[in-house]
């Protein structure tokens, strides 16, 4: 899959206006307080350009951030270190995570879990996270809901156009997998540079996620509606799982 390469350099410009990272971080910290989680060791996996990492970093002593994309990590490191954050950046596959450390809090935000397409890899991912948590540590992750991926994104086409960036986003839904084909035109001087990326996300039902979490040994503490304490509905678009590792 060819994704988050050149896209990494314009990611924040396109995504940040739609996501309230500060609000998400405040909700995550609220959960940590409710569950008496130490603010010592924090790991953000599939960290992207480090938006959640940066919001939570000042609250913890030791911060690690992992992503599979060198380009996204480069953007994150440049941005966060310029702000004075001391963060350990590592390029790894989250399904094969191996840091030889344990953490009080691990997060995986902005539907990165949906990028794991195979059940065996999802199991490996949950097990890797489990093994990197301290006893009673928590894992907070979100997914695009089954409803959102199959009924909203599904077989649809979107476009975006402003002075500097234009893109066309075409989706194809096949057996719970949404393949996304994106074509970008980015202004460089008087010309526009074109590049293409392909992304795929799997639509998971709650029953599947619950099964794999329980098999791994996680306790599901609660499920939030888009980082808010609201009732989960059939049309909820983002499910946020708070799970804990038992002793």
UniProtKB/TrEMBL annotation:
Leader sequence segment: none
InterPro entries: Methyltransf_25
GO biological process: methylation
Methyltransferase domain location: 43-137
Annotated organism of origin: Clostridium thailandense
GO molecular function, one term: methyltransferase activity
DNA-binding as UniProt keyword: no
Designated name of the protein: Methyltransferase domain-containing protein
Coiled-coil stretches noted in the UniProt entry, renumbered to this chain: none
UniProt keyword terms in alphabetical order: Methyltransferase, Transferase
Domain of life (superkingdom): Bacteria
